Amino acid sequence: MGCSQGRDETQAGSSRFEDALTTLPCAGPQTMSSQEIAELTGKRHADVMRVIRNMLEQLGLDERNFASVYRDAKGEERPCYNLPRNLTVTLVTGYSIPMRHAVVTRSKSRSRPSHRW
Question: Cα–Cα–Cα angle for 66, 13, 4, nearest 5°?
Fold first, then answer.
């Protein structure tokens, strides 16, 4: 995945999730950590990790491809996931009806012949 580009102004709604996704650094593939997702959604990191494992299993994806670690405040390594944009959106749209609506609205606006999604 390349660098994020400016947001389409015709897109309905704005959210913290979209803002976070469009401001990801441009070095390498765009990803969002399970920690960031937990913070943005107000959910416990352990719960986000559980939902990610379930999502990856249902999609037939190997969780090891997304597994990582981070250092907590004590300097101890803790597990986390780094998800690419498509899986991040898949996950958070399950948490947020406004986000789900924004994705559906955007996909409809992109279904015109001059646009591709």
Answer: 45
Query: What residue spans define the domains of the chain?
Result: 16-95
Angle ∠(50,87,27) on CA atoms, nearest 5: 115
State the residue for tokens 């609205």: 105
**Bridge partners of residue 69, in order along the sequence:** 79
Q: Which pTM does this prediction carry? A: 0.67
Query: How confident is the prediction along the chain (117 residues), in pLDDT tens digits per residue?
Result: 332 333 333 333 345 555 555 444 444 568 999 999 999 888 999 999 999 999 999 999 999 999 999 999 999 999 999 999 899 989 998 888 888 887 778 767 766 555 444
3 state DSSP class of 53? helix
77-84/31-33 β-pairing: antiparallel
